[in-house]
Amino acid sequence: MIALALPAATTEEGFVAPTIEDTHYRDILPWGGEYGVLLDPGFGKQMLLTILSVVLIATFFLIASRRRQLVPGKVQFLGEAAYGFVRNSIGKDIIGGRDFLKYVPWLFTAFFFVLVNNIFGAVPFLQLPTFSHPGSAYGIAAIFFLLWVGIGLKKHGIRYFKLAVVPSGVPWYILLIVVPIEIISNFIVRPVTHSLRLFATMLAGHLIVTLAGSAIEYMMMTGNILLQGTSVLVLVGSVAMYMLEALIMILQAYVFTLLAAIYIEGALHADAH
Amino acid sequence: MLNAAIMAAEEGSNPLIPNLWELLVTVVGFAVLLFIVFKYVMPAFEKTFAERTEAIEGGIAKAEAAQAEANAALDEYKQQLVDARTEANRIREEARAEGAQILADLKEKAAAESARITEQAHVQIEAERQAAVVSLRAEVGTLATDLASRIVGESLADDARSSRVIDRFLADLETSSQSAGAAK
């Protein structure tokens, strides 16, 4: 904190690290809601990108699934491969059973919604992973929290809460410790980590790329030949970070969907755990 | 911690506080997408998958049926081939037997024919011999009479005597020829 605060105190000379507000290129397009303000009715880049992602995903998959042919064309094949990936390697493998198909649309939507929104962060000029804003991450995690709690209640009734927090075959004096831990772990830590994992990785990755960018700009502007030379190293490093960030964007979409599937499976088979 | 909270408040940028409008847009966007997937995308893909599975399984069943049919036809052809071979062997055997029969018949016929010809020749020879004997008998009588009359002269012109002499001579001749035939 102090290290970060220092450059700000000496603004006249030296490098000013970009803050979180600077990561969104407000100059290019205002992104509406101010950071950390609960109710700011501004409409801007982040919301626009969210809507854009919905339009893109819906358009692509409607086109891919419209012409149902036994021997698929390129677009249909791509759509089927994408759908089949979520359906089989996440839905079927994790949830399994006869009725995993009911939950495939939830997982499918989550995967591509998160994936496309993350990849926006790697697209030049867009450059904003929408889940780097906590509101979006809380929202989508809340949807799945309500979904799996709802599934548990529907399947097991009110007994679900007992099944979820009281492990069978444990003596009562250990239950005194285990039950609070299970309550905290299942109903508080789970949704919080589900959202924060996505949000924090997106924000951190984005911040690193922004930091590298502004550092290169600063070094080039100093007129000092040694600093200008060093900026090449920063450039190389920032490209590597950019690649890593792109990988994390895809990975986080997968992890989010995988965890959602695991939570749904846990709620469905709460009596077996 | 307190320091951080104060700083966040000053800068208005605690990154953990959500903007509720963004939350709303995200939830609504997700809901819209979910609706589209439930209503259009998933049924279409699932239907395609089901149709494809059915087509592949149907194709396999059809191929199996064709294979079975081909096998049956092959068996039938093999059976027919075996039958045809047996038939050919049988015909060949028959032909061989028939040929042998014909040959034997021909031989027999030839033998009969040669026997018949030989018999005929014997009969003819016998008949000719008889004719020769008859003509000789008549001629010998005349020749002998001629010879005797030349030798004896006028004395032997008496009919009665000459007739007795000839009869005795012929009887002698006959007995000698019969004894010769019996000896033969």
Automatic annotation (TrEMBL), chain A:
The keyword ATP-binding does not apply. GO terms for cellular component: plasma membrane; proton-transporting ATP synthase complex. The chain crosses the membrane at residues 47-64, 103-123, 135-153, 165-189, 195-213, 225-244, 250-268. GO terms for molecular function: proton-transporting ATP synthase activity, rotational mechanism. HAMAP family: ATP_synth_a_bact. Belongs to the ATPase A chain family. This is ATP synthase subunit a. It comes from Arthrobacter agilis. The gene is atpB.
TrEMBL record, chain B:
The keyword Ion transport applies. InterPro entries: ATP_synth_B-like_membr_sf, ATP_synth_b/b'su_bac/chlpt, ATP_synth_F0_bsu_bac, ATP_synthase_B_chain. Keywords: ATP synthesis, Cell membrane, CF(0), Coiled coil, Hydrogen ion transport, Ion transport, Membrane, Transmembrane, Transmembrane helix, Transport. Pfam families: ATP-synt_B (PF00430). It is found in: Cell membrane. Belongs to the ATPase B chain family. F-type ATPases have 2 components, F(1) - the catalytic core - and F(0) - the membrane proton channel. F(1) has five subunits: alpha(3), beta(3), gamma(1), delta(1), epsilon(1). F(0) has three main subunits: a(1), b(2) and c(10-14). The alpha and beta chains form an alternating ring which encloses part of the gamma chain. F(1) is attached to F(0) by a central stalk formed by the gamma and epsilon chains, while a peripheral stalk is formed by the delta and b chains. The gene is atpF. NCBIfam families: ATP_synt_b, PRK05759.1-3. F(1)F(0) ATP synthase produces ATP from ADP in the presence of a proton or sodium gradient. F-type ATPases consist of two structural domains, F(1) containing the extramembraneous catalytic core and F(0) containing the membrane proton channel, linked together by a central stalk and a peripheral stalk. During catalysis, ATP synthesis in the catalytic domain of F(1) is coupled via a rotary mechanism of the central stalk subunits to proton translocation. This is ATP synthase subunit b. It is a single-pass membrane protein. GO terms for molecular function: proton-transporting ATP synthase activity, rotational mechanism; proton-transporting ATPase activity, rotational mechanism.
